[in-house]
Amino acid sequence: MCGIVGYLGQKNTKEILLEGLKELEYRGYDSAGIAVLSDGEFSSFKAVGKLVNLEEKTKDFVTDAFAAGIGHTRWATHGKPTELNAHPHVGASSYVVHNGIIENYAPLKKELQNEGVTFLSQTDTEVIVHQFEKNQKKSTNSFEAFKKTISELEGAYAILLVTKSEDDTIFFAKNGSPMLMGINAENEKYFASSDTPLIGQCSDVNYFEDGDYGYVNADEIVIFDKMGNKKEPHFTKLSTNKLSAQKDGYRFFMEKEIYEQSSVISDTLLGRLSEDAVVFDEIDTSLFDSINEIKLCACGTSYHSALCASYMFERHAKIKTSVEVASELRYREPVLTQDTLFVVISQSGETADTLETLKMAKAAGLKTLVICNVDNSSMVRMADASILTRAGVEKGVASTKAFATQVVVFWMLSLYVAKRNNSMQTQEIAEQISLLREIPKSVIVEDSMHERIKRLSKRYLHGHGFFFIGRDLFYPLALEGALKLKEISYLHAEGYPSGEMKHGPIALADPELFTIALLPKHLLYEKSRSNAEELSARDSTICAISPIEFDKADDFIKTKEHGHYMLEFFEMMVVVQLLSLEISIRLGNDVDMPRNLAKSVTVE
Ligand code: F6R
To answer: Using the 8-state DSSP alphabet, how is residue 484 labeled?
Structure first.
């Protein structure tokens, strides 16, 4: 998803912008660009593809004086990923970068074209710079023109704009897309669409609210809120712990993140378990007062962890639970009742569809909770309460450790609610807590297991599709396994409830249909096994993942003997992640930045 950086100061502007953009690479992008305004002169560079292409283009460009610079990584929404469509977009004497979508760009563009303006790109963003320059002609100063332009835009945006007539100024606006500003003792000003580019550069940051707009120059920081009232920036300290972007010897960030799961799950558990209770200091049990139902809402992998949560909430806490795909909930006019706790789940905390459902739930007067990996993200700031998953920065576009920690948080939360609702005996909760403490061990990647999966992967590079099948909690795990595989291998894969195959999909069974069967020992083993046998009898190629030998399988991945199905769940999660990883590597794909995907989907 698009990323924004901005810099105003004396230092090497080009390097600062490029370094900032590198920190946003993990979000996914297809082109990038920068524009630097110094002493009334603009220099602008754009390149399709990876940032090295932009670095190459700017290698002879030197920035050694006071400058206002803006930069952008683009993930195409309107128009193909071409150099012309890359940001910054140019007018006669201004440049703009933008994240989000300008919904009314078509009528604005038409009007500007009728007035003789020529558009260079197919983007919605380009209208901003031309509309601004149109307003500039009728305004006494550039800020007035900028303010008028913002009032004419509909949709979601984070915008930075620079213009020749005020060459010491960056104009900004934020509505529905994330943006923050950072400062330091050297009187430099930084902008970015997330914290990462600012860590190490700034001491303090101000997170803009929706509707904020204004400008900065060497002497001033001027912010107005959506009502047009001037407001003071609200600075908070920025973490100095810059997470290493290095892969620590792993081939891909995704691989590193799979291996990290044991330690991040330990972090997730840290300080949250006593002998017989789960402790969440960040929430109050009153959050569950008068609550008779939990509604979970998310997208993609986070949706799969929400499905896992629904099994656990009903099983442990005996509370009615429903799960919704955010993009569906938004428009289907759901009945939201006040006795429902609305829970959104998001790694990034910025996913547009999920964020909108959170706004809907708040507007309907529901209590809201977010399970999130990014502190200070839009969702964390908006929800009544939040629980952080503590997975650390996840750079691989295909989510792994974020999913793992989400499921851990949900398992803990189901026990927390169970205790509050007296739906489980103290002894039972204590037993579950002992199991929780065992998860970090269950997800350690053993060399022998990784080697076996590496070897097996060569047999799964073709075929006409994969079915990941499982029952109960292993059904959402099957969905997640299939999503991982399709994301990074580009092979068709589906997750299915094992018992549902005979109601249609089994018609596809033949040797070129690969079935990945999740067969835990401690949860519906016999039933799952006979479903896998049905597929084997129809000659589907079966790869069984189980601690129990399965003679009807073509391939078998033996997992360890665990005392409980939840520990089997976590080990099998690692197995399906590694299988996708190894298949993708063999196919020669970019595991960390798969085609067409973005890390944080901040558009609808
Ligand atoms: C899959 C993946 C996506 C995200 C989805 C929601 O590997 O990462 O499916 O899970 O885009 O993102 P968040 O969790 O940031 O709301």
So the answer is: H
Indicate whether 243 pLDDT > 70. no
Which ligand 1 atom is at minimum distance from the Cα of 403? Answer: 10
Non-local (6+) Cβ contacts of 189 within 8 A are: 6, 7, 8, 9, 170, 181, 182, 183, 216, 221
Q: What is the mean pLDDT of the chain?
A: 93
Let me know if 401 is a catalytic residue: no
* pLDDT of the residue at 1: 59
pLDDT for 446-463, tens place per residue?
999 999 999 999 999 988
Judging by DSSP bridges, how do beta strands 204-207 and 221-224 pair with one another? unpaired
Q: Is 155 helix (H, G, I), strand (E, B) or coil?
A: strand
Q: How far is the CA of 183 from the centre of ligand 1 (A)?
A: 31
Task: Please name which of 358, 365, 371, 349 lies closest in space to residue 283, comparing C-alpha atoms.
Answer: 371
Q: Please state, in angstroms and rounded to a whole number, the distance separating the CA atoms of residues 52 and 450.
A: 32
Q: Is 57 a catalytic residue?
A: no
CA 341/CA 332 separation, integer angstroms: 19
Ligand 1 site residues (CB inside 6 A) read 299-302, 346-348, 351, 354, 398-399, 483, 487, 600-601
Tokens of 133: 């320059």
Output the residue whose Cα is nearest ligand 1's atom 3. Answer: 300
Mutate which of 257, 299, 393, 486 for ligand 1? The one with the most ligand atoms within 8 Å of its CB, which is 299
3-class secondary structure per residue, 332-394: CCCCCCCCEEEEEEECCCCCHHHHHHHHHHHHCCCEEEEEECCCCCHHHHHCCEEEECCCCCC
Whether the Cβ atoms of residue 14 and residue 43 lie closer than 8 Å to each other:
no
DSSP 10: S
Pocket test for ligand 1, best of 308, 399, 593 (most atoms within 8 A of CB): 399
Q: Per the structure block, which two tokens stand in for 511? A: 């040797």
- Greater confidence (215 vs 195) lies with 215
Query: From CA 254, how far away is CA 267, in angstroms rounded?
Result: 19
Cis, bond preceding 88 (omega within 30 deg of 0): yes
Closest ligand 1 atom number to CA of residue 303: 10
Can you list the domains of the chain with their CATH numbers? 3-245 (3.60.20.10), 254-437 (3.40.50.10490), 445-586 (3.40.50.10490)
| Distance (Å) from CA 511 to ligand 1 centroid | 32
Q: What is the pLDDT of residues 535-567, one digit of tens each?
A: 999 999 999 999 999 999 999 999 999 999 999
Q: Which atom of ligand 1 is nearest to the CA of 598?
A: 11
Are residues 100 and 602 in contact, defined by beta-carbon separation less than 8 angstroms? yes
* Residue linked to tokens 């994301």: 487
Catalytic residue among 14, 189, 295, 599: 599
Pocket test for ligand 1, best of 343, 347, 353 (most atoms within 8 A of CB): 347
Please state, in angstroms and as integers, the Cα–Cα distance from residue 21 to each residue in 133, 354, 547, following that order. 27, 25, 45
Q: Say whether 266 sits in a helix, a strand or coil.
A: helix
Secondary element (H or E) of residue 557: strand 555-558
Q: H/E element holding 4?
A: strand 3-9
